[in-house]
Specification:
Length: about 425
């Protein structure tokens, strides 16, 4: 870039240059430690895009056609059945598409799983009675979604129990979560960040839900396709990110998506943890739990065991392997869980390099490409059907102000938009 084109005294720095015969305005992020310009987002008459200024001053321009893709926000209210029906009607295309994707995945992976769609439905039906006994309200949400989307309840039950039904043969080392307490942020805010890594085909089905249940706290959360929402925060200042882990003690029981949906109804950290440890759970996630007070925990869960971890120096990071010594003894194939360890150590190092964090500094970590394509910003889209994954959405949460900043797809080439929970 020609520094003579800089518009002086504009923070952040604005640059103007010609691009495809149109005027291009560029907002540049400067690395304040080394003074180099590392990244820029831009807008011109044909849309938004992003410039990454590489180490050798090479410029890579990724242009998005038209306006930036914004995540769909679905507002629902009422009983659980009514909310589910509203989601189903509003997101019928996404829900039907996700069922088609799941059918295709099982067909493509039949040689590995020895499981077709009809067999998967039979297996999934074994889990639903446990969910209905403990959390009938969330099974009602699924019933409403099925009605609204004009799909079978069994199909949605399969989607929400899919990882359990396939016995975690979907061994995607997916998701990176971080949280920072107010002591380590500017303006005394509690901040959370999450990259959701999953099958590339499901990226088109991501959306946000702003819910006001009749009998539970309002919440703002992310989901995709026919899955119940579970990653987000509620009006009581409870936030949750979920990271898949791989225990050896999984069993038929309450699907972990149902359990994590219940956490969004919690009014206290203790109540949230009680849901995470629900009896007869089929397996478990790592639940990165944050509260507006600054309390932050990683609750590592399996079907029968759990551990609660505290942050180090006001910072918590978790990916897709167990950290607790005891939980490691029940981890399946730990030698295969390599990229999750790299992402974990990389995120810890980047968080430690800065004393005070902001939304922008967390988003910079979410865009990191060390160990590409199996990086924090995940691009591992080539390979076996059971192994392909990418970051399909990235969320950065200001829990103190009840704000979610979210982008569609890889954060390195997407625009974050802000969503507010007013409740």
């Amino acid at each position: 870039m020609d520094s003579s084109s800089r518009c002086a005294n504009d923070p952040p720095e604005f640059w103007q240059q010609k691009f495809a015969d149109t005027t291009l305005w560029v907002i540049v992020d400067r690395n304040h430690e080394n003074g180099k310009f590392e990244e820029a987002s831009f807008r011109h008459t044909s849309g938004y895009g992003k410039i990454s200024v590489m180490n050798k001053r090479e410029e890579k321009i990724e242009k998005l056609n038209g306006e930036p893709r914004l995540l769909k926000l679905v507002r629902v209210a009422g009983s659980h059945r009514e909310m589910g029906r509203q989601i189903g009607e509003e997101c019928r295309q996404q829900i039907q598409h996700s069922i088609e994707n799941a059918r295709k995945l099982l067909a493509d992976a039949y040689d590995t799983l020895q499981l077709d769609w009809d067999g998967a439905l039979i297996q999934a039906r074994k889990y639903m009675p446990f969910a209905d006994e403990r959390y009938p309200q969330y099974v009602e949400e699924l019933r409403g979604m099925a009605e609204g989307a004009n799909v079978g309840l069994d199909d949605l039950g399969m989607l929400n129990a899919m990882e359990a039904v396939t016995m975690d043969a979907l061994h995607l080392t997916k998701c990176t979560s971080m949280a920072v307490s107010q002591e380590r942020t500017t303006n005394d805010r509690v901040l959370i960040a999450h990259n959701e890594d999953w099958l590339p085909e499901d990226e088109a089905d991501v959306f946000l839900i702003y819910a006001k249940p009749d009998d539970e706290p309002p919440f703002l959360a992310m989901t995709y396709g026919g899955l119940l929402p579970n990653i987000g925060f509620n009006a009581y200042g409870i936030a949750q990110c979920c990271d898949s882990v791989y225990p050896t003690d999984s069993r038929i029981g309450i699907p972990r998506i149902i359990v994590s949906r219940a956490v969004l109804a919690a009014r206290t950290p203790g109540e949230a943890i009680r849901h995470m440890l629900a009896p007869h759970r089929a397996a478990g996630y790592n639940h990165l739990l944050a509260h507006e007070s600054g309390e932050i925990y990683s609750v590592e869960v399996s079907a029968r065991q759990f551990a609660i971890l505290e942050p180090e120096n006001g910072v918590m990071v978790h990916t897709n392997h167990y950290l607790d010594t005891h939980m490691r003894t029940i981890e399946s194939e730990p030698d295969e869980l390599i990229s999750t360890r790299v992402r974990y150590l990389r995120a810890k190092r980047l968080l430690a390099q800065q004393e005070k964090h902001t939304i922008r500094s967390l988003q910079a970590i979410q865009k990191d490409h060390v160990n590409h394509p199996d990086s924090i910003c995940n691009h591992a889209v080539v390979g076996d059907p059971l192994d392909r994954e990418k970051t399909i959405t990235a969320l950065t949460i200001d829990l103190t102000n009840r704000q979610m900043h979210a982008c569609w797809g890889n954060p390195c080439s997407s625009v974050f938009s802000t969503y507010q929970l007013d409740a």
